[in-house]
Structure prediction request, 492 residues.
Amino acid sequence: MKTLLITFMLLEEGGHKGGLLDIDPGLIIWTLITFGLLLVLLGKFAWKPIITTLQERETKIKNSLEQAEKARRDAEGLIAKNNEMLAQAEREAQDIARKAKENAEKLKNEIAEQAKIEAVKLLQTAKKEIDNEKNSALVFLKNEVAAMAVQAAGKIIGANLDAEKHRKLVDDFIKEMPTSKN
Amino acid sequence: MLLNLLQDPHAQHEGTKAAAKAVEETGKVDIGGTILHHITNSHELELPFFGVVKLPHFDPIHIGSMTIDLSPTKHVVMMWIVALLLLLVFTVLARPKLIPKGLYNFFESIIVYIREEVVRPNFGEKTDAYVNYFLTVFFFILFANLLGLIPFGSTATGNIAVTATLAVCTFLVTQYSAVKAQGVVGYFRHLMGGIDQMDMNIAMKAVLIVIMVPVEFIGLFTKPFALCIRLFANMTAGHVVILSLIGLIFVLKSVFVGIFVSIPMALFIYMLEIFVAFLQAYVFTLLSAIFIGMALHSGHEEHAVEAEHH
Prediction:
């Protein structure tokens, strides 16, 4: 509808000076000059700095994103490392505790063993001592009893049986006695 | 009815004064003359508070049989205002900032859109070499379109000489890019539709060349011609429609029509015109980008791209 209207107007106007379809050469030249100047001036003073700014921003955003990504990765690495270290520390602590327990157990057992051995040894020594004491006491007693018997027999009989004969007599007697135990 | 108005033979080029005179003499309003006066070029400016200002008139220059009148006209002055506005906006008001803010943010979003969505799909790596041209074309057309919507303004892009010049610029850039991309030999081979490389006998080739060369040759000019007419017609038509709707008030001499028909309709069309101002600037830029981009990529892709956009 619009186009039709314009076409009619153009047909009506064509040919007359100042009509819609008349191309004014002066205006063409002015348009060329204005548009050309505008192209040069805007190109130099407007579009160039604006496009440069756009490119700058593009690189800046790109770099920032890359940096952020890198920082994120670094942080993740650090966290992972931290976690690993924590886990290791825990493991080590558990290890230490376990070892300490084991050592303590071992030490306890060792000490107990030692004590037992010591006790047995002590007992044996004591027994030996007692045996020794008993033997020496027995020997002493034997001698004493022999002397006393000799004395008593001498006194009783009053005979002059010398001491040498008597001793021999008693020794023989003792030898005939069954050996005592302990 | 509108056509009758527009075809009214009386006092079509005389301007408002003549129209007023006609009203006094005949009691009839010359709507067609008023509309034409509004949309055509003239040697006077209508300014607020100053009234009509005559622009200086120089003697025309004669080159051969051509007569070139270089005296500034209304549309020349409008273009200068557009140029000054563009320089003011893009070098003072909207300085580039790394963190976009305020007015610059608005214009930058448009610039980024043109660079990334209009130019880059057609130019790829060569985007930044060509983006200046498309940004200038877009904002020049946009500002000229919008200036025509302001009271006392006039649409320079509603003048066919202006749109033709812009289309010729696109045409020249297209041909320059084609020669640069394909070489002179490749350029002419492309103009023959690549017939010389086809597998057929010489007679057949000759016949095809006779047909194809004019077709391809005309094809070079139809695209910029369409660019020129599209922008011119769209910018002119909107104004004609708005003024015609307003004209209804005076033709029908009815307050009722004025309040309930003309003003709402004219407002609606005015809103549409604001949209069209952006749309046509975008279309001109986009089609220029497609044509020049096609010239850069030689040969057979062209027809595929063209088919896609029709």
Remarks:
- Helices of chain A lie at 2-13, 25-157, 163-176.
- The radius of gyration of chain A is 66 Å.
- Residues 17-176 of chain A form one domain.
